[in-house]
Amino acid sequence: DIQMTQSPPSLSASVGDRVTISCRASQDISNHLAWFQQEPGKAPKALIYGASSLHSGVPSKFSGSGSGTDFTLTISSLLPEDFATYYCQQYHTYPWTFGQGTKVEIK
Amino acid sequence: EVQLVESGGGLIQPGRSLRLSCAASGFNFGAYAMSWIRQAPGQGLEWIGCIKSKTFGWATEYAASVKGRFTVSRDDSKSITYLEMNSLKTEDTAVYYCARSTLSYWGQGALVTVSS
Q1: Nearest CA in chain A to B102
Q2: CA-nearest residue of chain A to B41?
Q3: Taking CB atoms and an 8 Å limit, are A49 and B104 in contact across chains?
Q4: What is residue A82's DSSP assignment?
Q5: Neighbouring residues of B69: CB distance < 8 A, sequence distance ≥ 6
Q6: pLDDT per residue as tens digits for the range A85-96
Q7: What is the least distance, in Å, from the CA of A14 to any CA of chain B?
């Protein structure tokens, strides 16, 4: 199975900050990488697919980059509603696998 | 509007079986693969299986943790996908989500608690 490793596991940031979350795949997954946001008690929400393409309705303050094994999610200018847990996920090879998540907390 | 609504969750004893349903609306259900993902309490997300569309022969894929115990199926005439769970274990306790295609849309989840 392809292992997805996110870093950091958690981070503290302030409203208005820019944050970057990293995701590394254990083997080449091309650009078959998605990012999700999950607020407490809610279902995950899809943010990005194809490593860098935003889903419809997702604000442009979210951006993704990378290919192969190394990927990043950047959130510019954090708002209170952005404090959540973020997951990366590969859909290159079955079984699809998720990173362990990065919790973005308010400083 | 795409909607996915899971049902069928609840409290079940270890070793028993349970079937979850996911009713879809707002899109051409038959054209899309459907996945199931679960999240144990306080834990991360685990993809557990999917069923592809008729174009791909309704082929299924599973995670090793559930292969042989769980079965994903679908009824395109009703726009429903099912997750049949057999020989349930306490470690199967989780919120179970269905999602469309490359997980672009998710249901609200159904809680399954496996306990005696």
Answers
A1: A91
A2: A41
A3: yes
A4: G
A5: B85, B86, B87, B88
A6: 999 999 999 999
A7: 24
